[in-house]
Amino acid sequence: MRLKYLLVMLFALTSLGVSAHSLHLFALYDGHEISGKSFYSDQSPAAETYLEVFRLGRDGSETVPIATAKTDVYGSFSIPISGDGPFKVVVEGAEGHRAEGIADNVVKRTLGRAEFEVLREDIQKLKHKIYLHDLIGGIGYIFGLFGIVTLLKARKDKS
């Protein structure tokens, strides 16, 4: 019975930060349109997902979307918008996946539009990638928790 309780507690503690297949988004506003890309944590595109755009600030409502659209088969989108930013972009994926991002007015001085979008996409993919040191750290965290439980159990049995 104690082993079952210990295993349930161990799994409950370790499952809090799990994001096996989360949805990610990046968006930018260039003064004329909001463009960006939506993708899952395994870097596959969030194809044909619905998205909404909300205007933030004094003149906008965060509850009523000013534009709705759908991503293409590559997870990319481009929505013509006029006015000043910032804008909140919300992507609703399958099975309850949801991602939000802020698209503020970006001034591109040295890079062209295509180069800037590729650069932002690469940065977002690197931010959401799972690295080996993250995996090893997670395993170490599990072993550490197990060690603490074992230590407490040994102290209790000794008393």
Describe the structure.
- The chain has 159 residues and is α+β, with helices and mostly antiparallel strands.
- It has two domains: 2-16 and 134-158, no CATH class; 23-127, Immunoglobulin-like.
- The protein is 35% helix and 26% strand.
- The strands form two sheets. The chain has a four-stranded antiparallel sheet, with no helix packed on it. A three-stranded antiparallel sheet has the order 1-2-5, covered by helices on one side.
The name of the CATH topology of the largest domain is: Immunoglobulin-like
Strand order of the largest sheet: 4-3-6-7
Largest sheet: 4 strands, antiparallel
Report the CATH architecture of the largest domain: Sandwich
Structural class: alpha+beta
Helix content: 25-40%
Secondary-structure element sequence?
Answer: HEEEEEEEHH
For the secondary structure, the number of strands is: 7
Topology:
Elements: H1 2-14, E1 23-29, E2 33-40, E3 50-55, E4 67-70, E5 76-80, E6 87-92, E7 98-103, H2 113-127, H3 132-158
Antiparallel strand pairs: 1-2, 2-5, 3-4, 3-6, 6-7
